[in-house]
Amino acid sequence: MDVEIFWQQFKNAHPEVTTNHHDTYAFGSDADALAHLVKIGRKTATTSALELYEADEPLPYVGEYNVILDGHDQPVCITQTKVTEVVAFDQVTQEHAYHEGENDRTLTSWRQGHRDFFTAEYQAVGRTFNEQIPCLCEVFERVD
């Protein structure tokens, strides 16, 4: 289904939503699995490397709606951002790792998976990952 049709169907079902703005994205390394975790309510948080946002790329903000895509760029569900905060990689909490909903939901597995992902992302732009990088931690709620 087309993302804009999906969004309009959501708005039609939720007349309290007065904005036309929404972000559209798929999650990192396994978009299908991660979109599924959001859809079933297990994944309610995500983390991005703040330094890897493009200069003209807007950051997520509280109240923003997001159309979550699967690995084939098909819309799966809609979330709304509830919290954003910048935290150093090595200061991300067990609670945030749990809400990311991945693997066994521990901070240890979160750090390993995100360390691997961020290392590759930093290498792709000719930079070096370290454990003090600023991370944009976002908490969201599935709204449709």
UniProtKB/TrEMBL annotation:
<dbReference type="InterPro" id="IPR007374">
    <property type="entry name" value="ASCH_domain"/>
</dbReference>
<protein>
    <submittedName>
        <fullName>ASCH domain-containing protein</fullName>
    </submittedName>
</protein>
<dbReference type="InterPro" id="IPR009326">
    <property type="entry name" value="DUF984"/>
</dbReference>
<feature type="domain" description="ASCH">
    <location>
        <begin position="25"/>
        <end position="144"/>
    </location>
</feature>
<dbReference type="InterPro" id="IPR015947">
    <property type="entry name" value="PUA-like_sf"/>
</dbReference>
<dbReference type="Pfam" id="PF04266">
    <property type="entry name" value="ASCH"/>
</dbReference>
